[in-house]
Amino acid sequence: MSGKRLLQGIISLGVAALIVVIGIVLAVLSRGMFAEEKGGAQSSQTATGSSKATGEERQAVPVIVQPARTMIFEQRIDIPGNILAKRFALVSARIPGTLDAIFVDEGDFVEAGKTKLFQTDSVKLTQAVAIAQEQVTVAECAVREKEALLEKTLVGQQVAEADFARYKDLAERNAIARQVLEHQEAQVRQFEADVRHVRTLIELAKAQLEQARLNLKIAEKDLADSLVVAPISGRVSLRMKEPGEMAGAGTPVLRIDDLSLVEVSIFVPSEYYDQVVVGQTKLRVRVAGRDLGELPVTFKSPVVEPRLRTFQVKALLQSPPPEVVPGSLAQVSLVLASRQGLGVPTQVIQQRGGKNMVFVVTENKAKAIPVELGWETEGWQEIRSGLSAVVPVITSGQSLVDDGTPVRVVKEAG
Length: 414
What we know:
This protein has 414 residues and is of the alpha+beta class. The protein contains three helices and 23 strands. Strand 18 and strand 19 form a beta hairpin.
């Protein structure tokens, strides 16, 4: 019985010892887990702080800035234009008729007053000159004939007057009958009338001679006019008829253009009429990729074309380059006004709340500045007010920021 109790006591003691050991183990394990949790919490707090700082750095918007600059702004309009010949001639025949020959072709250079262009009906007109010359000869002979007749009549008059004087002396001595004296007196008066008649015939013959000479001059002028020479110096740009065709006044045979002086012509909308001033307003011209510089306006149409509501503007160009010829297309900028101002690239302007804004960088943050816009020139926008100095403005990334947005400048453009 005692032995049994002893065994039970030993078993109870062993169980108690086991319980104590298990408690100790559990206590040790609990302390290790607490230390691990505390260390983990501290590590977590450190990582969270670092991540927050990195996040803030990553939230800054990268931007590029560029300084505003003072420059010349222009109010202008770009208009396609044409190159025209200032001096040209549509050459027609002065004497109607068949074209005998055309002496020039398209592209040929001609000199004013020297180069022969074409001729009409030269054979007929040459014969007309010969006929007129013969008529002059006939008229000259008629004058000489009448002058000889006058001499003959004057001689007869002198004989009659001498006979009348003798008959009068004989009649006073009653040597002849009164009727003979009267007959001789009639003869004298008849010769006087004949002299007056012949003198009139001479005047008529001389007038006919003058008329024949004038007809000769006209025939010679017609013959000369049948051969047409160049009225201006230049190049033949168009040949509109060929030999054998009929030509006449008002029907051009050739066109000649003077290439040494051309005009730049544009048609401008009527709303700009009062802004174009002859001698002051400039045209900036390019033709075939060549810059011709600025040309002052030399002509402004006095009226506006009623259908298209445009008016013509021209500028002269002396001695143009070889590639600038009548008919060429010109790229023209009509400069209406210019002024100096502060400018920024056009893409800088942003709309915020219905207002025009530009963004600058202040203390690593974007700052919105309301601005008043002016003219635009070559991709630059004039700032009339808002920016008071040449300061860098955000030119890339401006659409991603608002007032106060953190930014990081990655590049400063020149």
